[in-house]
Amino acid sequence: MKLKNMWILAFILVLGCGPSDKEKELAIEAYNRGVGYFEKDEFDKAIAAYSEAIRLNPEYANAYNNRGNAYNKKGELDKAFANYNEVIRLDPKFAEAYNNRGYVYDEKGEFDKAIADYNEAILLEPNYADTYFNRGNTYFNRSNVCDDKGELDKAIADYNEAIRLEPNYAKAYNNRGVAYEIKGEQAKADADFKKARELGYKPH
Q: Which domain-ending residue is among 92, 115, 145?
């Protein structure tokens, strides 16, 4: 799965009541420190920085989203979930938050809720390859639980779309290969595994 973090330039707009200009500026500085820590896998420091950004600007949806991602990386799914819920409360059209919350639902085995969140993310941002990839993974996981090969076809369709949007998406080629292999379509599976390796994918 991919989690989307964004840098924000320190450009302040005054939009009615709420944090002062200075607080907004300091919040953005804290947020950007959090992104830097996240990119270095220093998740506790990232969480502290995002928390400072939220303290300064309690309606900072991006900070909640990225703090959720940091908790996600630490395996603290309930805290991640709470942060994504807050993002969606603040900004119901925040596509990445639905994608990220969908991942948490998938990890908890709540596949129907995961798919519903991915559907919403795609509706809001139809060209986001990661959401198709993640929804494909959920269909794949649901196929294992339900022993339903029809779910594999849905997974393959989503991997196809992820690859169409991002032709060098190595993990999508690999996972599509696994789905083909389970379906007994070994030639297609081998072609996908080969492509994934060419793109630098290394199985764990």
A: 92
Task: Read off the pTM.
Answer: 0.87
Q: How many domains does the chain have?
A: 2
> Domain end: 46, 63, 92, which one?
92
- Domain-located, residue 188: yes
pLDDT at 19: 81
Q: Do 119 and 203 share a domain, yes or no?
A: yes
Nearest to 176 by CA among 194, 78, 165: 194
Rg (CA), the chain: 19
142-188 pLDDT, tens digit per residue, is: 998 776 778 999 999 999 999 999 999 999 999 999 999 999 999 99
Do the beta carbons of residue 95 and residue 131 sit within 8 Å?
Answer: yes
Q: What is the mean pLDDT of the chain?
A: 92
For residue 64, the domain's CATH number is 1.25.40.10
d(CA 129, CA 132): 5
Of 138, 63, 73, nearest to 99 by C-alpha is 138
pLDDT along the chain (204 residues), means of 10: 53 55 93 97 98 97 98 97 98 98 96 98 97 98 81 97 98 98 97 97 82
